[in-house]
Amino acid sequence: MQMPASPMRYLLLRRLFAILLLALSTLAFAGAAEPVSTRDGAPIGGKDTVAYHDRANRDAHTATDGRAAFTVQYLGHAWRFASQASADKFAASPQAWVPQYNGHCANALASSEGLISTNGNVWEFFGDKLYLFYAERGRQRWLQGDWQAFSKEADAAWKAILLSRLKPRQ
Q1: Among positive and negative, which fits the CA dihedral 157, 51, 65, 49?
Q2: What's the CA gap between 94 and 109, in Å, rounded?
Q3: Alpha-carbon distance values, 18 to 6, 7, 13, 28, 89 (Å)
Q4: pLDDT tens digit string along 22-62?
Q5: How many Å apart are CA 66 and CA 45, to the nearest integer?
């Protein structure tokens, strides 16, 4: 026996709505689970995360301030950029531009100090990845030491933090 079109349509719409609601709640929860380093009211102190990758900025080792006029929402925060072009690059592929650990101090994570926010002024590329540091001392530790071992320690600490945020609270 076949159901009339309208009850089947109703069931289909109801099922699609349930799936959409589940997907949206999962995305919202996942975004809330990832901490972002915020200083001065913006991720990474309002620095333009795309600009770190510019060859001239890397050579001069300078950070570029973002502007409130050029922002992109990601992980629940308004990331700032120096230009619309930078904002557009970021919006197209945020994962390609966000610093490791969403801008938290890599050295603090590697040293079991937990999440310490950075202002985006102390940074370095190791391999092809951008790492931020709370202070120059941490950056120097990585430059003069075994940055690969430090990054593995920081990765493990970051994963543990993310997992702890996903566990239901009792």
Answers
A1: negative
A2: 22
A3: 18, 16, 9, 15, 33
A4: 444 444 444 456 999 998 889 999 999 999 999 999 999 99
A5: 9
